[in-house]
Model the fold of this input.
Amino acid sequence: MSVNNMSFEQAATLLNAVHAQVTGVTTLAPTDVSGFISVAQKTLAAGYDPVLNAISQVVGRTIFSVRPYDAKFRGIQADTQKWGAITRKLVIADKPLQDNKAFDLIDGQSVDMYEVNKPNVLQLNFYGALEYSKSFTIFRSQLDAAFNGGPTEFGRFMAMVTQNALDMIEQTRETCARLALCNFIAGKIDATADVIHLLSEYNSEVGGSFTTTTIKDPANFPAFVKWVYARIATLTNMMTERSALYQIQVTGQEVMRHTPFERQKVYILNWLLNNIDARVLADTYNYKFLEFADVEAVNFWQAIDSPDEISITPTYLDGTTGALVTGTAVTQTDVMGVIFDEEALGYTLMNEFSGVTPMNVRGEYWNQYYNYVLRYWNDFTEKGLVLLLD
Done:
């Protein structure tokens, strides 16, 4: 017996056997359900439509499989921009304070109240963008044989095709966000700046000699995770101070910055965040940075089969010259997280446009196009930290 064909089968015997196990009449027994469960398969027991050669002509009911996808890292999407190939960012570098001349007055001399003191302006420039296009073909009548629900069913099919295109566009935005994150992480590592080595610090503080393997032992891990939580909370508090910490400085134009909690992004590898939730928050009510900052669990940084690893050749700012540096290839495992100011990295969607071509009257079809431009950016003069488990 099999339901995975075009026939109708009697299922009473199988159902009775399963029901007996469910109700405890009989004990658990090996059960062959191959003749009971209809499994999705690509092989068709009927002919195909003449155009796509993918949809059967004989259909009793059609299930349109569509599930809209929402891109992750939505928190680093910036405002749209329509004009200009260059974006500039202006900041003021601190200059030394001056003496109060009111306490140094001398008879016969005057004080120059028009002494010039120009602001020390640092201009940062962002260039370039990436163009993308997605299209699909709509047929006027050639798919008629594939649908028996008339215009309504065909409309649902087209909605499914359109949603697929939108899902791909949405995931492209997510991919750009991943690249922005990975470049920022790799840039910090290559510049050996603002990288927190969690396990090394922990060993130094407690006098231990744990490795990335032994620290995960059930006897060692709970205390370490609680220490990591406290360390991250301390770092997010330090980010709120107006200082030169955790940012690349341009020589002669050093900028003091601060990042309040509500402007902080804390992206942590899901594995670590889950352990914080289970082992720390389970027995404490002190949420601190998890409550105030924008915290997001990251399933993987670059490749889904290597969640904690990146392999990037980064571009970042040279603090001495103010020019870009193409770093060496960075392959880093045990990347646990990144903390950064909301202006340190992100992506911008620009010039989003969709349109339909005129019908090709001979072929009886037309094309739908989605065109858009994505710009993703890093600003290493903003505050940012990388967390490594080493």
Summary: The CA atoms of residues 221 and 261 lie 28 Å apart. The mean pLDDT is 77. Residues 126-388 form one domain. Residues 150-190 form the longest helix (41 residues).
